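SAMPLE LOG
Freezer: B-3
Tube label: C17
Construct: single chain, 388 aa
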Amino acid sequence: MSWLSASIANQKECLEGLELTRGDLRQKVEAAIVNSRGQTSNSLEVAAGIMGGQRQKTSDVGLFSESASTMQRMFKLGANLIVAKDGSGHVGSIQEAVNLVVDESLGPTFIYVKEGIYEENVVVEETKWNVYMIGDGMYSSIITGNRSSTDPEGYITSWTATLFVSGQGFVAIDMGFRNTAGPEHFQAVAAFSSSDRSIFFRCSFDAYQDTLYAHSNRQFYRDCDIIGTIDFIFGDAAAVFQRCNILPREPLPFQYNTITAQGKEQPAENTGFSIHECIIRPYEVVTRPTYLSRPWRNYSTVVVMKTEMSSVVDPAGWVPWEGSVPPDTINFAEIENTGPGADISGRVSWPGCRPAISEAEASMYTVGAFINGAEWIPLAGVPFDPNF
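STRUCTURE (predicted):
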């Protein structure tokens, strides 16, 4: 189901990337892939029918922080490749190290990125499996770029990413990812991931609009700092954000902030964003309104639970997409949140927005049930809470 949902996300992005082309190229491509889109959608519905929509609650299996720290020290000591700006490593750039990874490796390849600011755009291609990128801290080992959608090269949104990851099983620990293009350049991605079973632990994501593109497949974010303005967590992945700091910053004077924009287009997709035990607070003084999400697609799904919200969150909570009335099929939900921004008395009254769901429903969006994290996160030595 994850792979079929990812296929739908890729087909959408293919067409969106052609929107600004001249002539009828987009229409021709859309016509050429109509059968593929239909078959993917039908296959997904069949798979969903077999699953019956059931998600099982998992047992409490997590790792203690001490064990995680020990494993990460071992990762560094046993690194296959060391990146260092001062010449003390195997290579001087992160892309050089990634290029040396054996294609489709079933075992992990450990890349230790020593402290420094690396000005490069890094691509981990689809053939680079199980890459572990371990730094010296989220604000010490930093990859930075400045590509944006306004560049004369004509980048589509995903191509602006400072880090672009599509190889499955990617793990980043103690790394920082920045896009310094600034708010006036609109879409400018710090990190893009379509990596199935990807993990980001103690990482920072720093940009403005479209900071983190959680494009597709199963993803887990733990103890991360995510900073931005408009749609700064967006995409069509099945992603859980756990114990992260979500940090809106000041946008341009005519803009407002939206923390998420989730792109679920079809009801059978197993995608959505789960924000669990996080903290939402301003990165700096924020004078413009900040909302939890806006519905990017008809089945946009965002669940916020056990999260501390400061007053930076607007009392309405959620905002329409460019003023349009959201369809009843969206799924925006909240449960057991705290802080002044969690007051639900002023929330919007859309049918698809439910400010007080049950614990049973919330449990469907946990690490264990939503992304089957107990099966693959322990391999990376990353702590997690599997249940509500």
